[in-house]
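Q: For a teaching session next week I want to show students how multiple molecules come together into a single three-dimensional assembly. I've collected the sequence lines for a complex. Could you give me the predicted structure tokens for the whole thing so I can convert them for display?
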Amino acid sequence: MTVELRTEYRVAGLPAPVSHYTDAVRWGDLLFVSGCAAIGADGAVIAPGDVAAQARVVHEYLGSALRAAGTDFAHVLKVTVYLLDVGDRAAVNEVRREFFGDALPASTLVEVSALVLPGLLVEVEAIAGIPA
Amino acid sequence: MTPVRAERSNPRGAPPALRPYYANAVRVSAGDLLFISGQVAWDDAGQVVGRGDPVRQAEQVFANLTTILAAHGATIGDVVKVTVYVTDLAWFDQLSAIRVRLFAELPPASTIVQVAALVDPDLLLEVEAVAALR
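A: Of course. Below is the structure for the complete assembly, covering every listed component.
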């Protein structure tokens, strides 16, 4: 079977992208997943002020994107975590542990001055390998 | 030895690289990729090195990166992309002096941004990298 080297994914269950991008792009056996944030299908922020609830939504979205491309959390190579308040790290980490289990990705975490919608507290982007 | 499967380019028509320690693009045509987590100025006991001193911290950060690369049989010249997060871009020129020493020969693609905070208030910069392994 021939697989296109570059494939764009719009993932069922994820909110419409807020600008000119798609949810994930596959290149060869790598998958680049756009930053996921707790935005609902109606475009509104989910659970404003509740970082743990937002982190859960973020990881559910990330999981959906991974599955859409035939991979999973165990094959994530690298995540970048953007927090509005770096003090939320422990709360986010608890959720991360639930979703990643024993698999440890490479990771960078920073506090930023703003995310795309007011009320968002956390955004996570990822690069994953796609198993043969 | 110059790794032939990572080709640096600064194509005509794009603005030239601002400094000699990075390239506008690096094409990787072979080799395994190594994704390195953001490194900060912690020593091997997890203690902050160079409190208040961005240059000392940068030296520790790049030393940590070099250690991780070496564990995978790689060197700083195998890095194809770095992202540098600083809490104050006023240190740009001081950081440049270090980066030119490390990267002038085999410059990676690069992004630098200022962030509001890092994981510990004593940390002044964080550097993540992708390397192409031989």
